Amino acid sequence: MGSDDGAKGRDGRSWWSAVAFLFFFVGPMLGLEQYLAAQRRLRVARALAVAPAADARPPAAPAAPPPPPPAARSPLPPPPLSPAARPPPPPRTPAAPPPLPRARAPPADEPEGVADAVAADSLAAPPSLVDELVALAALPPREALAYLDADPLDVERVSNATAWTCPDRRLLSSSPRRNPSRAAAANLKAAKPGAFVWFDHLSKAGGTSFCEFARRNLGIKRTPSYYCMPPDPKVPGPDGRVGRWPGPQLKGYIERTKHAVVANEWDAFPAPVLERDFRDAAVLMTIIRDPLDRLVSTHKFWGILNNPAKVKPELVPWLKRKNAAARARPMRRDTTNDFLSQVGRDNFATWKFASYAEPRFDDCKGDKACARDALATALAVLEKFHVVVPTTWQAWAGPLYAGFGWTRLEEVHVVNIGKVQSSSSKKDLAPSDYAALREANVLDEVLWHWARRAFLERLRCPPEL
Known about the structure:
Blueprint: H1 2-47, H2 129-135, H3 141-149, H4 182-189, E1 196-200, H5 207-218, H6 247-257, E2 261-264, H7 271-277, E3 282-288, H8 291-305, H9 315-328, H10 340-343, H11 348-354, H12 368-383, E4 387-390, H13 398-402, H14 425-428, H15 431-440, H16 442-460
Parallel strand pairs: 1-2, 1-3, 3-4
Helix pairs in contact: 2-12, 3-16, 11-12, 12-16
């Protein structure tokens, strides 16, 4: 009997302990979790300078009945309840997602025909995937990178791009204003006079190999001899810096030489010129690389292989000097300053596709609104490209090139100095340097995610009518 009574007493105390734990610990913790979730949502909304829309919030859950007051302490524990009579634990309420930004209206001074498409078709539309990506520019870099690391675009685990399934929610717009010119693609495929490929070459992102690839498909006589860069008698050297040419000069060159491809490596992409003068003549192509891998490769090529100094510069200090020089001496169309400083700058790809007509994008100086506009402009410009290929997925890009009548689709890898090298920023950088460089290049990290998703959609998704 004594043994049975002791067991019952222990059961009673155990049940009372469970009830007390639920009431005094679990309940307050759930309330604290809901409070912190609300604070996080409010912080994101303030960072985006957008008040969350009332109609975008989930319906409020019915108020839970107030908990019963705690029972007075008793020297004896209450009798244990049967399992059927035990109250269920409080339900866990999931935190609502942070509010998304509204589509922004284009500033009055954005490039004609390019950045005006950022919001013109979607001012009243719900936020898109692009809106979500652009909003990251307003967040602290570490928070933006944490969002990207969660793989919201489903690009990190792709092992075979040809087997990727097109999702219901698209990244790319269906608006003709924001899409590549179908007429330009048809004209190039038909080899019509005046049709040509504009290849925007990000230094150390496979541009040399692309030129050889284009030459195999278009023919030697239809490609400039120096890495597909056309010459200009007024510019010293074999590279005439086509990115600075006005429209009539480029048109005259194409008509005179019958060349079907030109490459622009050092200068910003002249989006207004191509949109205004070559909308239905130029097929736009580029290759995008992981931003930190590209920076490491840039240092190996320009800081070491092509550096005559006996003592070679270390990676991180060299990149910092190049970035500082790029911001101190921005490239403008009427200057001939140090082009190498640009290829080592932070957020190089964003600068290349956004800064042609916007001098403020040369250096946003920490201004979040400027960074957001630069990223939005770069993505709007790239959305008009016919081909955007990630360096890591070039083996799957054949169907995109085949659409222009190209038949020699085997991948080409060419280096002009030394042997083929694989630059891995994770291996070449200390963890602290890797983390710091990712934060400094957060805009290009967003662009890198966008480029991979855009490639998959161009490859696997049928056109939206």
